Amino acid sequence: MPGSTDFPDQHRPHPQPPAVVDTAQPRTVIVLLNWNGAPDTIECIQSLLRMEDQNFLLVVCDNDSADGSFERLCSWGASALPAQFAAWNCTLPPKPGAKLILIQTGANLGFAGGCNVGLRYALLHTEAEFVWLLNNDTVVDTSALTHQIDAMRQQPEVGMLGSTLIFFHNPTEVQAPGGYDFNFWTARVLKIASAISVANLPDESEVEARLKFISGASMLIRRSFLEKVGLLNEQYFLYFEEVDWAWRGRGNFRLGYCSSSRIWHKEGNSIGSHRLLAQRSAFSEGYLARNRILFLKTYFPWRLPVALGYILGVGSIRMIQGQRKLAWTLWTGAIRGLFAPVRPLPAVDEWPESMRRGPYGSEDRASPHLP
Q: Which one, out of 39, 304, 324, 348, has a CA that is 20 to 30 A from the CA of 49?
C-alpha cells in the first residue's frame, strides 16, 4: 500500500479532526466492504473522517477475511474512535451515537451480498436520506460528500450519483467520470470517453447522456431508490451488480454525475481486476464472462447468441495469443452463466444465514476490542 508520499500533496486532504455531530440520525450512511484489505480500509476511513461533511454513519462490512482484517479493524476502531465504535451483528441492538460500525458477515458473500448487509443496516436502523457505497481501496477528497449532497438536492429525480474516479497511482488520469456506457447486445462495458485528464473533465450533461450505470467504486444512492428498486442483485456475486441495479431503476430515477466530487481509486487490488487486459486474473475474467451472459439471460434472452458469439471470438483470440487458461476461463464462465438459475431479489428484512450462526458471524470467532 502506498504511503502518504505517493499521494500528490496538491490532492491529498489536509488532516483535520472529525467534527462532532449527532450520528443518531445521520443524513448519510457510508458502506465499505472489506475482504482481506484492512490497510486500504483504514486509509479510506481516515480520509472520510477528514471530510467537511461529517453528518454520516460509517458501516464497514467484513466478508469473513482470512488475513485477520476483522480483528485489525476492531482494534483500530476501538483505538481511533473509542466512544463511537461498535462491532455489531443482527442479533444485537444498534449502539446509540456510533460513528463507525463494524459488521462481520460470516462468509464471503461477494460484492452484492456484503454491501447488502450495510444497506440493510441503513434502511432498518437509520432514517438516512442517502447511502454512499464506496470501495475500500479509495481515498476521498475533503469536499467529496458535500458536492454530492448538493447535487442530489438540486436534482431530486436522480436516484444514483457518481463521482470523478481518479487513478490513485496516476492522479492526473481519470478512471471514469461517474460510471460507464454499456452495449446491451454484447453486454460490454464501454468508456464514456477515452484518455480523460483531471484538468479536462467532460461536461456533466454530456456524460449523463451516455451514462448507463454508476461505477460501484463510488455510488451515492437516494433512500427512495432503495425502497422502490430494492437491494443489489446477489446472483452475480461479483461484477454486473451496478448494471443490473441501474436497469431496474430505469423509468423511475435518473443517473447523475457530480464532477466536483473526486475519489482516488487504487482499482481492483484484491480481485485481480485491472484496466490492462493482460493483467486481469482468471478469477476476474471468469466472473465477467459468467455475469455478462447471466445479465442478458435475465433481461434480454433473445440477445444471447450475439454475446455468446462475442465471448467465443475473444476466447479464440486469447487461445491464439497463448493465453489458454484465460480462454478456457472465458468459455466456462459463459457456460456457467447460461445455466445459472435466475434467483429472486434479496429481501431487506432477511439477514444472511452466515450472520446468525454466532454473535460475530462464527461460533468460534473471537471478538476482541469490543466496547
A: 348
Cα separation, 90 vs 117, whole angstroms = 9
Q: What is the model's pTM?
A: 0.87
**Which residue has cell 482516488?**
264
Closest by CA to 145, choosing from 122, 124, 129, 167, is 129
Whether the CB-CB separation of 273 and 226 falls below 8 Å is answered with: no
Q: Please tell us whether the domain made up of 4-271+343-355 is placed in CATH 3.90.550.60.
A: yes
Domain ranges of the chain: 4-271+343-355, 277-339
Buried b (16+ CB within 10 A) or exposed e, 284-322: bbbbbbbbbbbbbbbeeeebbebbbebbeebbeebeeee
DSSP for 79-116, written as a single string = HHSTTSEEEE-TTSPPPTT-SEEEEE-SS--HHHHHHH
Q: Are 173 and 198 in contact (CB under 8 A)?
A: yes
Q: What share of the chain is helix, strand, coil (3-state, %, to 5)?
A: 35, 20, 40
DSSP state of 7: S
CA 255 to chain centroid:
16
Q: Whats the size of the chain, residue-wise?
A: 371
Q: Are 190 and 182 in contact (CB under 8 A)?
A: yes
- What does the pLDDT look like over 137-192, one tens digit per residue? 999 999 999 999 999 999 999 999 999 999 999 999 999 999 999 999 999 999 99
C-beta atoms surrounding 343 within 10 Å:
10
User: In whole angstroms, what is the distance from residue 116 CA to residue 231 CA?
Assistant: 6
Q: Residues 149, 27: contact at Cβ < 8 Å? A: yes
Segment 252-305, tens digit of pLDDT: 999 999 999 999 999 754 444 444 444 457 778 888 999 999 999 999 999 999
